[in-house]
Amino acid sequence: MITLQDCLARDAADPLRTLRELFSIPPGVIYLDGNSLGAMPKAAPARAAEVVTREWGHDLIRSWNTAGWHSLPQRLGNQLAPLIGAAADEVVVTDSTSINLFKVLSAALSMAAQDTPQRKLVVSERSNFPTDLYIAEGLCRERGYTLQLVESDEIAAALTPQVAVLVLTHVNYRTGAMHDMAGVTAAAHAVGARVVWDLAHSAGAVPVDLQGANADFAVGCGYKYLNGGPGAPAFVWVHPRHTDRFWQPLSGWWGHAAPFAFTPGYEPAAGITRYLCGTPPIVSLSLLECGLDAFAAAQPLGGMAALRAKSLALTDLFMALVEQRCAGHDLGLATPRAHHQRGSQVSLTRESANGESGAFAIVQALIARGVVGDFRAGDGHRHPDILRFGFTPLYLGFADVWTAVDQLHQVLHSGEWQAAQFRQQHAVT
Ligand SMILES: *Cc1c(COP(=O)(O)O)cnc(C)c1O
What we know:
Helix 2 packs antiparallel against helix 10, helix 5 runs parallel beside helix 6 (about 130-145) and helix 10 packs across helix 11. Helix 6 links the parallel strand 5 (about 120-125) and strand 6 (about 145-150). This protein has helices spanning about 5-10, 45-60, 65, 70-80, 95-115, 130-145, 155-160, 180-190, 240-245, 280-300, 305-325, 360-370, 400-415; strands spanning about 25, 30, 40, 90-95, 120-125, 145-150, 165-170, 195-200, 215-220, 235-240, 330-335, 345-350, 370, 375, 385-390. The protein is an alpha/beta fold and about 425 residues long. The protein starts with a helix and ends in a 15-residue tail after the last helix. Bound molecules: pyridoxal-5'-phosphate (PLP). Pyridoxal-5'-phosphate (PLP) binds near residues 96, 169, 198 and 221.
């Protein structure tokens, strides 16, 4: 049996332990939802106040130059680049993941239309995050492509010479299963297809090597593991061999070669700057900088590699404790056990005789006890209901994991989750 004392000893010996001081976690809360909305860096309120009160309130429009507002999308992109295996000046922080996906998939389709016009398929996973599928569906309709959805284990077989673009999310949002980015990219390239990777559940959670994988396009999220705050801008990366080949379709003035020349004709900026569209949201970008600063603080402690090792230790511990303490409550594991096949979350399932998993109510009962995870609905057959727990090694410790599983044990053992109050659905789950 793993004891709370064992976990406290591991925390005491953890060289990353100090990083949690950079974050504000309310007392009594064990936050296992950083994969959906990262926790607030303690530096964020003062940074927001500085941007609003001094840069905006006092310096007014001069701040575009004096505070460097105008280059914030590129500067944050450069700060983020090492976390995803990109080089300097290859990433910009801008817009949302959905919008950036629209831009890169459009560019990928434009390239395919020129290079291989007979190819008419876009392939993705049926269990991909819905917005990725919706954006792909919309673009396919508009551009005369067919969107083919397959299960994860059918991707290799779906890669035929008819495929123009493969659109995948690196770490699955429901199960936490992680694709072999280099292997899948190589398989797609072998049939002449290009790959768009969504790193929403990877950036800041697992080491990513876009250059090493020879990837084509990538997008990702600022408000999950990067802790940029609600609705934080997303990021976009394009391999330099592709960047200057096509305009992205949202050819706004911030992507222009000389926006303040105010010329009537569009001329795209060189490089990744052409993936900008309109005036950037400076307050939101500034908050994301606080999130990225936490990764800079982790750098002397071993950086992403050390964070990954701790994330795997935390998730291994969670799995082991669930097995030890919650046996007999019909829980199953939806996340692969092998380290190289999973991200930084653990997803549980629950079987039940009457077909109702209880997953939603169990998560609500846990939240009432201060253990914040979330619920993702299944489709009733191949993909079951999920109790989802994200582990952010920047601010979680081993004793937190122990306490979370202890609370899960109590929720299940007491049956309290069956109370009516835990069945009420909210607009956002
Ligand atoms: C969270 C998430 C998104 C979010 O997209 P928004 O445009 O920020 O709403 C997109 N794709 C994946 C895979 C995600 O996990």
